[in-house]
Amino acid sequence: MKDIASITRDKKTKAATLHLKKDIPWKIWPGKNTAHQASSPALSGEKSGSYSLPVDPMTHACFTLQTPEEILTLAEHHLPMAGGYNIRDLGGYRGAGGKRIAWGTFFRADDMAHLSDEDIAYLGSIPITTVFDFRTHKEVEAAPDRLPASVKNVVHRPLAPGNVAPSEIQHGKFGAYDDTDAFMRVVYRELVNDTGINATYREFFRLIQNKNDLPILFHCTAGKDRTGMAAAFLLFALGVDRDTIIRDYMDSNTYLAGKYTLLTKDNPQLAVLYSVKPDYLLTGIDTMEKAHGTVENYLARVLDADIDAIRSQYLY
Length: 316
What we know:
By secondary structure, this protein is α/β, with parallel strands linked by helices. It has helices spanning 117-124, 137-142, 166-170, 180-193, 195-208, 226-237, 242-256, 261-266, 278-292, 295-302, 307-314, and strands at residues 5-9, 16-20, 26-30, 43-45, 49-52, 63-66, 71-74, 88-89, 106-109, 130-133, 153-156, 216-219.
């Protein structure tokens, strides 16, 4: 079922806008679960359209939307980062039992090296507490994170699936692989099967199962493969349906548009490194299902994910 409303923020001004898709009476309050309060709503109306929300643009916030059909907690999926492209909140998706993932808890991202001071302050207002960095040592040295003071825990666990140097790819070579798609399918099988990579994702799940380490932001350089697999693992653990998980994965193509334009213009063979296809993620899913029957079995057996505890803690 499609949601009747969403919130976006301008990446520079960070001003918040409510988008209503249906003509229906509505009221909205700042905060979670606030529709029961006697105070007047921040805004109300009866028509579809886009409405500016009167809130501090530099502070992250959730909102409660009330209609005759339902009461929704809302925030922006795509965070308003002037210096970032693919930074997203996984909240709001429907999970097991029709419940929704808590907003402001799990964030996926690309590199954090070019965030503005305002971006950093905004992330601090969430407040991001743990950062899990999947980048290699060379990637970190080339683009060190800029992080808010709210971050108390930084975990760096390098992942480098595929074992093909970027210099080879730049010259149109993919090691022993026939083409870019074959190479990426190998990458996604490794993200599922490699024992060292399994250990990293197990640590990721240990962190997310401890509320004291949250909110957590996990990222790599583009935020699409190593991070995309982590996000898919987490969404499956929370009971999100496969189509929604694939759509979330594919959103990287939308949000990364423009980030690598100059690089890929002169080196079109590098485009594979900065985009995603459904087949890549489906290769990983198929690998898990062939070996374990279901993705949930894989998560429990290989990554030590406590599915019941995760759903109990983070679905509402």
